[in-house]
Amino acid sequence: MKRRELLQTLACAPALAVPHLAAAVTPRTLTAAPxxxxxxxxxxLPVWAYDGxxxxxxxxxxxxxxxxxxxxxxxxxxSTIHWHGIRLPNAMDGVPGLTQAPVAPGERFPYRFAxxxxxxYWYHPHWGTPEQVERGLAGAxxxxxxxxxxxxxxxxxxxxxxxxxxxxxxxxxxxxxxDVAHAGRLGQRVTVNGKVDLVQALQSGQRIRLRLINxxxxxxxxxxxxxxxxxxxxxxxxxxxxxxxxxxxxxxxPGMRTDFIIDASKPGRHVLKDSYGRGERALATLEVSGKxxxxxxxxxxxxxxxLPEPDLARALEQRMLxxxxxxxxxxxxxxxxxxxxxxxxxxxxxxxxxxxxxxxNGQAHMSHDREHAAHASEFRVPRGGxxxxxxxxxxxxxxxxxxxxxHFRVLSRNGAALPERPWRDTVLMAPRDRVExxxxxxxxxxxxxxxxxxxxxAGGLGTMFExxx
Length: 469
Description:
Helix content is 10%, strand content 41%.
């Protein structure tokens, strides 16, 4: 699509209301290309990078501003950019075949949309996602609050892991069957902003905002920080109703974000630890210098205009049964002999794709394109209608379920109502979990719902719905 045609399309499309829309727009280009960088503890690591950086540049905007960015694809493969967590026009969502054509090597594609909500978001490809994200293509998108909580420093930490081979290079066993059917691709090298054992120097008395983004393909983090007063103030970009003291471990699944306020009140080395899975590992260190300072009052999360509340009494009710995977109760997805042979031939010829392993409502969804959407959308809802989704995890594995283009309230987990009913765009489900969420379908178009363990999505654990109007 030409830039002029795209902007004409957007001009005719329904738009989300954005108060204080900025008149001035500063266009920029973001180049995706191979690079060799110091990253993941390696002095010289071949990666794919945005603007020659891993992670990509932090994109910061005021709420209500217009993001005007052109992707220049200098990769050997097609690509797109998905803006994870942002409410945006469907044509800008970056899903190849569904919302746009893939951006071929050497080509450009303009993304232009208003930013209606402050918060911590991120961007990554949605073509060949398990490989392209693992090679380094991910970055933070920060939309600043109208009146942010006062802090001395605003830090963005993008968490990731890397699977390296015996030569210290990214292992090129993408889409292997074991990863797809089990927990996804897990790397042995864990990084913060591409670095192993990152150290952040602070002065005693400083108050910082720490934005954590889980950009790993599949790794779940169980995060803790001892010795400093800290409060959770936002989840997935949406402010908490009140600041919640950070005590014990906090689970952060792939695609999820959490914002904290931390007081550097005690001198010394304070380690951000991950204890998910086997053992405990240090991710990064806050190194506080100076004399101890007194305790400060708990912060107040930013205020924002509320999202539309779902009408539960009139909501469309939809069940999403997650099935398949290793140790499946309900068996593997069925392929015809012809489908299986066609897939095998494509893989022999070098196609990088997963085999169908996972299902939603009994179907492995291996295609997300307009032709598929026309007859296989999971459900359709008129614009402004409310939807109540029940996710049932009938598998032996964890799944962070992500909704494109919308946020939802988490109503209950395993039959127990959640008093706070937090807003999320990604909800982490343990094996056999049952989670109810609800949202207002205010954004027209075809939208994905999928597991953000990237190998699970590639193996069929994703579907789509249509907002009509």
